[in-house]
Design brief:
Length: 326
């Protein structure tokens, strides 16, 4: 398969090709956390920079994909995405990354209007990125948000159901109030059902392929003591992913799930900013740190690109090695 490569050392040729693939993606994303993707800390990027000069000798193969800026098929040019809970944390990082990849993005927020409007403006304004206020606590709330996104951009290709709540205080099951149980499941599960239902109806009306990405949690995989409401809802998203992936595959609709471990956001701040609980949490993460939101957004983007064209029904673990499930 390497017969048509220029005649030089095969190892350095491959290294140069890898460098060619990595460099532009890194260069265009200036908001990557410096501690995760700088060349000093990330071995593959260090290789990329070391190998850069020799890439001149090997012209890139012509791309089959539409974005001429992107030599690897991570472009979402022409696609419309709806990302829920996009005002902060993982959702905001995903909004930015999807805009970087060329998608038009509708995203929701519950109460952070100013932050959301400012993010939408910085991501291209109304023609490219719009924020919608939505308190997502029922199936109909989810359906209504999908309708708003379609009214704004005329179509829908990708749904990322990311919004969620995690009641931070420990609640032993004997004392867990029914009101908390109902609210957590209403927000984290019922609204997701409505979102998926309306999004899938739109994909089918368009007769086009589509992507659904659900954001679960390690809590949905191994449970979470004293947070039974949260763990039950996140576990249900995993089952939903698998069932719907099989059901919707004949329609060209891929359904996948990203299950993050600890991520540095407002949701986790009460735990990660407390030295006692932080140390306990970090000891259980082989990589020894929480994720930055962009490290969750990256896998979400990947799942919506042609590179993931044969992946459906998958639960992608993004947890620093904390929970290893196949
Ligand atoms: P944040 O708390 O930082 O942000 C939550 C987002 O969801 C905000 O945009 C918020 O809107 C929105 N939201 C909250 N409640 C509602 C509601 N009732 N209706 C509509 N929107 C709502 O969360 P993260 O970024 O940390 O988490 C994103 C997802 O990742 C969640 O599903 C979470 O369960 C999951 N996750 C997070 C982990 C972590 O360590 N952070 C670990 C594992 C999974 P507004 O800004 O207006 O309040």
């Amino acid at each position: 398969m390497f017969a048509d490569l220029p005649r030089n050392d095969l190892g350095s040729t491959i290294t140069a090709q890898i460098a060619n693939l990595l460099r532009p993606v890194h260069a265009r994303c200036d908001w990557y956390p410096s501690n995760t993707l700088s060349s000093t800390h990330h071995p593959s990027l260090a290789i990329a920079e070391h190998a850069a000069p020799s890439t001149q000798l090997h012209p890139r193969p012509r791309s089959r994909y539409p974005n001429p800026m992107s030599p690897v098929p991570l472009s979402l040019e022409g696609k419309v995405a709806l990302i829920t809970g996009g005002s902060r944390g993982i959702g905001a990082a995903t909004v930015r990354l999807f805009r970087e990849a060329g998608a038009r993005v509708a995203f929701s927020y519950r109460s952070a209007r100013e932050t959301a409007e400012s993010l939408a403006a910085s991501c291209g304004g109304p023609d490219a990125c719009r924020a919608f206020q939505a308190d997502l606590a029922s199936p109909e709330d989810g359906r209504a948000l999908v309708r708003s996104a379609i009214e704004a951009f005329g179509r829908l290709d990708i749904l990322v159901a990311n919004h969620g709540v995690w009641p931070p205080h420990d609640a032993p099951i004997a004392e867990l109030p029914e009101s908390q149980w109902r609210t957590t499941l209403a927000v984290n599960l019922d609204s997701v059902y409505g979102l998926i239902q309306a999004a899938v109806a739109q994909f089918q009306a368009q007769s086009s392929p589509g992507h659904v990405v659900l954001i679960s949690s390690t809590a949905g995989q191994r449970g979470e003591a004293f947070h039974a409401d949260y763990a039950a809802g996140k576990g249900a998203l995993i089952s939903l992913t698998k069932g719907l992936a099989t059901e919707l595959a004949p329609h060209g609709i891929q359904v996948n799930c990203v299950a993050p471990g600890w991520v540095r956001t407002d949701m986790s701040a009460s735990t990660l900013d407390n030295p006692g609980s932080r140390d306990r949490v970090l000891q259980a993460i082989p990589l020894g740190r929480p994720a930055d939101p962009i490290e969750i957004a990256g896998p979400i983007l990947f799942l919506c690109t042609p590179l993931a064209g044969f992946i459906t029904g998958e639960i992608v673990n993004v947890n620093g090695g904390a929970v290893l499930v196949g």
